[in-house]
Design brief:
Blueprint lengths: L6 H4 L15 H13 L7 H36 L5 E10 L15 H13 L3 E9 L23 H9 L6 H7 L3 E3 L6 H8 L14 E3 L1 H6 L5 H16 L3 H17 L5
Parallel strand pairs: 3-4
Antiparallel strand pairs: 1-2
Helix pairs in contact: 2-9, 3-5, 3-6
Length: 271
């Protein structure tokens, strides 16, 4: 299979409705990988799951202990620059527990109406489980008053301290809490909001297949394809997400972690 050119994605006009036929040969590659991933009732082995989960917990706990002073300094700077909470939480869609990893995770604490609403949302996005992702706040408190919107380079909603936190990936540190809770993994596809998942899957039905594994803090798409600024670029990243799932292995995990270190040090791409 020939890997498509990534430069084509950069020329897309986000104001033009996404047409499935306009993405060839990207779509053909995604369809191929989608058929591979969807054909697997369980994409990981129990041994791989245990090793990966054990590493996730140990790494996340160690990272939070070592980086706690960084969080404290960042929190002070955030409060000095703008009003509002230091931490930011947002609902994202996680693992589809009806496929792939079938082990239980932490309880979300939903009950009654909240539980029914959660189930309704899961039905709309192929049973992906909603969870709250945690970050250090990098935008103004009213950043999405007009509705959901992807961030972009030079985004006026991002504060001055926010630009630094994003460039250094310090804003992502609280996500280690999500890893410990079982919502996320260190490595995996980035979790998205249901709004954008439903928007993309109208044209690319393979998009929810990303939910067959736990979402991650870093992933193949992030180290290979940089920031996601448009829905079209989100669609393009699906190739790497499905490739990651189709080729799950400890070697691939290690390779992505090393690439992540390079991305963070060099300031290129996104994690």
């Amino acid at each position: 299979m020939v890997v498509f050119s990534r430069t084509a994605l950069g020329s897309f006009d986000s104001s033009i409705p996404l047409a499935r036929t306009s993405l060839d040969p990207i779509v053909s590659d995604i369809e191929y990988l989608g058929s591979v991933v969807s054909g697997e009732s369980q994409v990981t082995s129990s041994v791989f799951d245990r090793i990966k989960r054990g590493f996730d917990i140990l790494f996340a706990v160690a990272a939070l202990v070592v980086l706690s002073p960084v969080i404290l300094v960042a929190a002070v700077l955030i409060r000095m620059e703008s009003e509002g909470s230091v931490f930011y939480k947002q609902e994202r869609i996680g693992l589809n527990r009806r496929s792939g990893d079938r082990r239980g995770g932490s309880s979300s604490g939903f009950d009654g109406t909240d539980r029914r609403a959660s189930i309704d949302r899961r039905k709309k996005i192929n049973a992906g489980k909603p969870f709250n992702i945690y970050k250090l706040r990098t935008m103004r408190s009213d950043a999405e008053k007009a509705g959901p919107a992807l961030s972009s380079k030079g985004d006026p909603r991002i504060t001055r301290i926010g630009h630094i936190l994003r460039r250094t990936r310090i804003d992502e540190i609280p996500q280690f809490i999500n890893v410990i809770r079982g919502d996320m993994s260190i490595v995996g596809p980035r979790p998205e909001r249901s709004f954008f998942i439903n928007q993309v899957r109208r044209e690319i039905p393979e998009f929810p297949l990303r939910l067959k594994v736990r979402p991650g803090i870093t992933g193949l798409a992030q180290v290979e394809d940089g920031y996601t600024e448009t829905v079209e670029q989100m669609t393009g990243k699906l190739y790497y997400d499905l490739k990651y799932i189709a080729e799950l292995s400890l070697i691939q995990e290690i390779r992505i972690l090393f690439k992540t270190v390079f991305v963070v040090i060099s300031g290129k791409g996104a994690c």
